[in-house]
Amino acid sequence: MAIEIARAKPAASTDSNADDPAFLKIRDLIYGTSGIYHSAEKLYLLISRCARRMLALGAASPAEYLEHLTPRGNRTAELRLLLNEITIGETYMFRHPAQLDALRNVILPQILQLKNFVGLKRLRFWCAGCSTGEEPHTLAMFLLEEKEKMLGGWTWDILATDLNDNSLQTARDGIYGEYALRNTSAIMRRKYFKDVGDKKLQVNDLLKSQVHFDRLNLSDDSKMVLQKGLDVIFCCNVLIYFDLASKRRVVQHFYSNLLPGGYLFLGHAESLFQVDESFRLVHFPGTTAYWKPTAATAGEGKRK
Amino acid sequence: MNAKLQAQLQTQIMKLDSISTAPAILKPLLDMLRRPSEDIKVEKVVELVSCDGAIAAQCLRLANSPLFGRRETETVRSAIMALGLERVRSMLLGLCMNRVIPQDKWVIEPDAFWRHSLGCALVTQRMAQKMEYPEPEKAYLAGLLHDLGFLVNSVLYNLEFRKCLRRASEEHTPLHVVEEQVLGFTHCETGQMLCEHWGLSKEMKESAGCHHDVRLLASAGPLACLVHLSDLLCRMRYLGYGYEEIMGVDLGEDAAWQILIGAYPALNQMDMARFTLDIEGAMDQIVATVDSVFGAKTIAVPATS
What count of Cα atoms within 13 Å lies in the side-chain half-sphere of residue B264? Predict the structure, then answer.
């Protein structure tokens, strides 16, 4: 199987090594630790990511590289480095304006109303799989812009987590180039960034103070149960790397993490069909989100 | 709506024939629509379409549009064959509708109206296929015609209807809600009456009449339910009436969905999030089609054969 894939994607594989059973062992190891599963069609991705680590270590064969991932080698550290290679993602700020519109027009007014009722004027957001920080920084700018409007008198915190140390470091540094800023208006750039030369901008102290970055493995049940009282979770294009069983487990955690009436945003092409039946799919102009019903509205008809 | 208003509307709709210049082929077309499709001869349709140069040109454009695979169609006959007889019947009626409204009477932008109508037709048909409804072409027609009431309101209640649209777009609310407040009736009711006046089937009347609330009927049929859901989906995909509505829609909790899922278990196997993504791709094609078929100002009359 691996040979066929290697032939189909020669540029991305290490050709002659592609049929090595060591890759299947590495695949199982990655799946066991992170829940990320490389199916036969996606194995070429794993092979190309391993190739980078093999080059860095000077490992001559997959079997030799596998040695580094065993308790005899420097297992924990190397596994972390390999996971960093596997979970690289490239994105940009204000990538999904329809999500922000849904937040502004429907979701936040709904949540504010619920929380006003109990007199709790604090919101909690979580970007699960935040990569290099574009998404949480976008959310922070959006919320700051609403501070003088609907969020007057409200406070919030934004937790942004990822498995990838390198991505998290980039996110914490908050230095972005033109690609990441392609959708960011001149006004936003002036308000929330400072010029650091070399055609790059860095998030200013105000924006930096809005997001708390942390490393978190979505497959780590003991850490997942600790996330509580969330209003909105963003987990865009992360679950696509998971197999059904792991996906189910993560989504069940999200459901518990959210307060009743909270929302989960997934990536554009993702669906919870046959993954989860507790969440309800809600359509908004140009986007969809998953809603955790409140006790009062469960069983109610269409909401507007 | 009270009986007095209903009688008044019915009288007005009678006047529609004299006010608007419905294409000559509308009448024979409507007769044709009432007959089962197997009774229809291709020659008869070719003859009908060829009578009206502008409609023939639009038919050709449509057959050549990306929505139908961008074929190299040059004659009316081959265009009809390419589109399929059943589709042509639906489309012809749509093309006629386009001319029922005099140029200066359009309230909703014609492009927006056509995108919404065609979008709804396509989504209704695709959803019908997903749930294994036996007549997906009929579903297409129901989707295409569900907003016939806009024509009535535009022609007969032009100023008031303009006011409705302005208010709905300013408040980002559904149009039918404002119509009810301003006019005392909605395009659903006038649409249903026009269907009646044109002698369209019970299902078409039902789809036009209750596509914003299937609970209006004691037992809404599958087409009315499908059209209702498609209309919502289109409006959530920027294929509404030309303005943005502020709403979140939980289709799974909708009365129409509940009715359909009871009668068509295949719907349980439908991944709604995936379906929405799929139709998003089709929407781009619809926009391209509307631009190529209805967007052009001047229409060349082709040689028919």
Answer: 22
Domain assignment of residue B49, given as a range: 15-100
Q: What is the DSSP letter of A50?
A: H
Size of interface A-B (CB pairs under 8 A): 79
Pair (B254, B139) in one structural domain: yes
Domain identity same for B46 and B127: no
Closest CA to A54 of A42, A37, A66, A45: A66
Query: Which residues in B lie closer than 8 A to residue A237 (C-beta atoms)?
Result: none
B127 assigned to some structural domain: yes
Residues B157 and B202 in one domain: yes
* A22 inside 8 A of chain B by CB: no
Collapse the DSSP code of B131 into the 3-class scheme (helix H, G, I; strand E, B; otherwise coil) and give the result: coil
Residue B160 lies in a domain: yes
The domains of chain A are located at 2-86, 97-291
pLDDT band with cut points at 50, 70 and 90 for residue B70: low
Three-class SS state of A85: helix
Is there a contact between B249 and A300 if contact means CB atoms under 8 Å apart?
A: no
| Tokens (6 digits) for B238 | 């920027």
Long-range contacts: B134-137, Cβ < 8 Å, 24+? B137/B37, B137/B84, B137/B86, B137/B87, B137/B90
Token pair recorded at residue A223? 């850490």
**The domain at A2-86 falls in which architecture?**
Orthogonal Bundle (1.10)
A302 lies within 8 A of chain B by CB: yes
Question: Which residue out of A251, A281, A284, A292 would a mutagenesis test of the B interface target, given it has the greatest number of B Cβ atoms within 10 Å?
Answer: A281
B53 within a domain of the structure (yes/no): yes
Quote the CA–CA distance of B301 and B305 in Å, as a whole number: 12
In a domain, B292, yes or no: no
- For residue range A142-156, what is the model confidence (pLDDT) as tens digits? 999 999 999 999 999
Asked whether the beta carbons of residue A285 and residue B236 sit closer than 8 angstroms, the reply is: yes
The tokens describing B87, both together, are 């589709």
Residues of A in contact with B276 (CB under 8 A): 283, 288
How far is A258 from A254, CA to CA, in rounded Å?
6
Q: Taking CB atoms and an 8 Å limit, are B253 and A302 in contact across chains?
A: yes
Q: Is A29 exposed, middle or buried (0-12, 13-18, 19+ CB in 10 A)?
A: middle
Number of domains in chain B: 2
Give the pairing type, strands A175-176 and A201-203. antiparallel
Do the Cβ atoms of B248 and A283 come within 8 Å? Answer: yes
Task: Please check whether the domain covering A97-291 is classified as CATH 3.40.50.720.
Answer: no
Q: What are the tens digits of pLDDT across the range A88-129?
A: 767 899 999 999 999 999 999 999 999 998 888 999 999 999
